[in-house]
Amino acid sequence: MLTRNDNMSLLGFVPALVVQYLANQQQITQLPEKQNLRSVVMFADISGFTNLTETLSKLGNEGAELIAFAINRYMELLVSAISKSGGDIFKFAGDAMIVVWPPSIKESAVENHEELKVICRLAVQSALDIQSKLNNTTILEDIKLSVKIGFGIGDINIIYVGGVFGRSEYLATGDPLTQAFKSEHHATSGGQIIVSQEVFDMVSDFFVFQRLQTDSSFYMVVKLINNKVQLKAGAQLIKNRLGGINKSQIMTFIPAALIPYIEIEQEKWSSELRRITTLFINLGIDLSDADSRLQHIQKVIEVVQKCIYINEGSLNKLLMDDKGSTLIVGFGLPPLKHQDDPIRALLAAQLLVKQLSLINCKCYIGVATGIVFTGVVGTSGSRREYSILGDAVNLAARLMQLAIQENKSILLCQKTAEDCEHKIDSELFKMVQLKGKTGLIPVYQITQQKSIMKIHYYQSKMGFNQKGLVGGKDKTQQILHLVNTFLMMDRDGRISLADMDIERDFILLKGNYGVGKTFVMKILEYQIKTENPKVLILESSINSFEKVFKGNGIKKIIKQIYDIALSKTTYNQQELLAAISNGNQVIYKALEELLDLNEWLNDYVNNFPNFQSSSSTNDEQKMKQIGQAVVKLFEIYFEQQLPDKKRRLYSQMDDESDDVQSNDLSTDKIDVPPIIIVLDDLQYYDQLSFYLIKTIIKKFNRILIIGVTRDQFWEIPIMSRKGNSRNPNRSQELVYDRGVESIINLYNVTPNEVIMKGIKNIEEQKHFLLLYFGFDKFSDPKIHEILHLKSCRQPLLLIHLVKTLLDNKYLILENDSVYATQQLQALIQHEEWLQIEIPQICYQMNGPIIDSLSCINLLLLKFACVIGDIFDIQTLFKIIPFKQINQNKLLMALKQLVQQDIIEFMHDDNENRYYRFVTPFMRECLYQSMTYTQRRSIHSLVAEALQIIPQPYEDYKELKRLEYHWRMAEQKISIKSSNAIIKFSHKAKKSLIVKQIQMILKTSNNMKVPLKKGFIFKRSDKKVSWQYRYCVIDSENMILYLNNCMIEQTGILPLKLITTITPIFDKSDDSQQFCLQVGVSDWIKKGKVKGDKRIFLFAFESEDSLEEWTIFLEFVKAKSIYNDFVENFGRIQLPINLINEAYDPQLTIYLQEMFKGSIKRFRQQNVTEQLSNKNRKSTHSKPQQLQIAQSPIPNYHSPNNNPKRFSVRFSAISEQEEKSDDTPLKEKLRQFFFGSFAVLAIHLLTHIDEPNYIVLGQEGRTMRRLKKNKKHKNNMMQRIPNIPSIIEFDFQ
């Protein structure tokens, strides 16, 4: 059952009307079901959304997030007004919403009618309130939104359909929705409210209406003429009163992508920027007639769900709106990311068209691919939905509308066509002008599905010729030599099992993803076809739809041989199948499935996901019988068995072989061409495929098989993603290993294994770039090294990487050389690539791995990726805001990620542990999947943590890293200029200045080194004029000079005697605008101490300059007071409750135990008991001892070790030690006295970062009494000699 927290988190994703129905029904036993009610429907469509999306889409990927932000902001205002009147937001439809007012059921028809009239008045009244407050509302810079509203009233049907994989859909239908849609269409501009004739008849006495001239059956609401009806939040009351709903029922309506985040109460982190292929589908059914066609609607939605889920897509929305019966489907939504999502989308679209036509349902589909916002849309309170928003989604909707107009089943965008061209053929349909787009847009249509190896694809896409691929040319020649040997022996007629070794019958080409295996095979195919045009080359690859089928890898090959066998005989399909299956019906059915004959595919879709294959590989006897039938097909091809021969398919290969007798069918015929079979994606082949491959190799010596396989980044089936390893599909690994081993062991001869390792060195990379891009020189030679490192020697990744840098203007091509822009040089200096849009191939490799992770592990990685390529556990634990992650869970999660080869352990010390990312571009993929808001918030947290957590970097690099994080945290994008604007906040400036001062003091032995200097204005002593003075601030004094020669001093202000520092922004007092008022108790002029209290007034040229000088003065003043305290009273011992400012205490204990290996058991238990029940920032349970110990941390980015730092080490006092404490009372009082001074100093240092801190150092009665003593006053002005270096106290 649902708890109160569940009510807040789960029920917000389901309309109140659906929740009420589930509560009354207790359980939906069988779909479809229908809920009837009579009420009012409002359709609200945001006006100006097209202009909004067009404007924001120009901002790149952040534009999709800003679209969601703008809609959310406007929707919140709408929902707030609607909820007050009792409306239930039934569906969000992009920039529109459907609202239904829940009716109250009365005893009599008259009472029900009166209640409906009141509800209708409430609804129209709330619409007037909305228009009065939200018309032409400015959401972003120069972007205003309004809303058009239409109303309908009558009998509504809410139908519940679907049910595949437990995923149910709800849909509102009926005449009131049609009325509302038509009403909204009659609104000519935002701010208008249009009602139908039925609504007008109901409330005509309460509002002023104006009949529309275009259609007399619709009316515009002008104003209210009677008193308002009292508001009531009917929809919210329904949810508040419910308590007995089954949680599992609610979950069937919530997308799988949201559930993990809801369970840990982190919905806001579910929002992402993802590369999605979106399908907008218009169904040719009338959903408004749910009474008579409910079963048909159920069948249509069930087929739709099956076609989508077979290809592992996500059904995001099902709705009836002004565009008709519409579906929104996404491929690439979490947790269903694949390497081939665009291909899966088109396969699903083709399957939908075919399967829906069988049940008399026409559909029109628009397909578009791009970066979109995926996340929760709506309000943070009563109602929200998981949606996908962005330019690609809008484009898919426009393409669907175009498909309806042009009567085309499927239309797709250019990006989708390019992503799928190696699997599915498409052609340009036309150039069209689409709404919301400037210029003509190319639109494509599907022509046919094809094999992976089409020459024109690689000539157009890759730009190479038959000379071969750099790094793969030797591999091409190696394979070509083996092929030519095979063909030469066949041409001479000397092939036999005795003469032909098995290693010439099977070649295995292995390599990593993107290394160029398929292209090498393309070059090979080109050369074979050129030299031997009559050789039969059969090719096979697996798409996502075919992976689950038995015999998945060999199906296409057998199908092609089957078609040839049909042409050589007079048999029809059934007769040939019966002949090769020897009348065995089980084998007959298995062959039908293997060859995709008859209605097998329809049976698969109809029975999904419970389809039982006829080709079960569990029965070895059945596999053997299938193998025998396949052998017969090949024998017919080679004319070894040719019953009732119809004709010869091929002419003889050589003129010299014309005298060869064709009657002898017991041996191979050399006039029938040999076969070269190319099998791509061998790593996905199933047991039956490997068995048939082995059988073919064993039985025929005129067949050469070349297998192409990937040794990394396998595509992981969704059902196998358990998160235990990078490739949790261990069973498929075993199938592949055993399959290849069975072929190797056929004759105990190792096959020819050709391994491609990509680009070997920089010189080869230069030759590769020259061949592909036409250049091989960079202005900075380091760029070659960086590209070689980032591309991991993979040619395809290098191509995409360089192309991305060129397209985004990070690299500028001039003549034969390429120059790196300042932006790229800055990123290289910071060793950061997070801002550079990563190549699509990186998403394809890493996306499935990321989606296989648990929600907690994924969130940890997202925070870790912002810290850096190398990150430490203390910083990570400090910045994560999730209460569900404690110290133990953090360590366990990192251990799992190490086991999954996503990160690796680098180094640990007594109190910290360091990791780094392993997989190429994994960190960038994680980072760029986050929204810009999430990125900025984490950068801010990291910057704050860098202030207090020791880092393994040189001081200069640490300052640069801090500046980088603040810059990333505070940059904003301008809608007008499309440029990022960076203006540091006061908090960021203070952080950077403090770190800069620390760096100067640590690197300088002279404590008098200038920390800040420059010209400022000082008001004269008589307050008459302003004087231009050169000011220098060191660690003790603020010194004023006559000029920048720094010879003649005009005044010295001891920092420890400054009482007030007050910025003034008022021009009323003087002509200077940006002033700083500094009060001191004593100061020095011309070597003489001025004992009078004095207020100095300084002026600066800008607000930023004033703010900077103020921060310097405040911090250095605090530092000076601390130094004075240390000199007079000695160095202090920090209280234990400040340890968590740097390191988390319990996490430190865990790490200490791991680092030391063992520790006394009673101490472990004691520490755990003390800290386990406390908040991670609370450490007041027991008195604890501190030791300041030196622990050098190695620098991973510099050949030199980092200077030694002081780290905090502590241990708890056991109860026995506490009881045996015999410390004298005098010593205890002394400790208490010095501890009090420690608290005073720490109070000053801690609150200096707060905006409203208390100014310490002001004169009190004791101070004024002491000033009477001149000796004491002179001593106060003496400078403190030989202050210890600040490195001995890590001042934060």
Please state the average pLDDT score.
76
Inertia-based shape: globular
- Report the uncertain regions: 451-472, 495-503, 643-669, 718-728, 1134-1141, 1158-1221, 1247-1292
Fraction of helical residues: 40-55%
Distance between the termini: 50 Å
Number of domains: 6
Structural class: alpha+beta
Number of strands: 41
Taken as a percent bin, the fraction of beta residues is: 15-25%
Number of helices: 43
Largest sheet: 9 strands, mixed
Estimated radius of gyration: 38 Å
How does this model look, in words?
With 1292 residues, this protein is α+β, with helices and mostly antiparallel strands. It has 6 domains: 1-253, 2-Layer Sandwich (Alpha-Beta Plaits), CATH 3.30.70; 265-450, Alpha-Beta Plaits, CATH 3.30.70.1230; 459-756, no CATH class; 762-830, no CATH class; 994-1120, PH-domain like; 1136-1277, no CATH class. Helix 4 (61-84) crosses helix 5 (109-134), helix 11 (294-310) packs antiparallel against helix 12 (341-357) and helix 22 (620-637) crosses helix 23. The protein is globular. The model is unreliable at 451-472, 495-503, 643-669, 718-728, 1134-1141, 1158-1221 and 1247-1292 (pLDDT under 50).
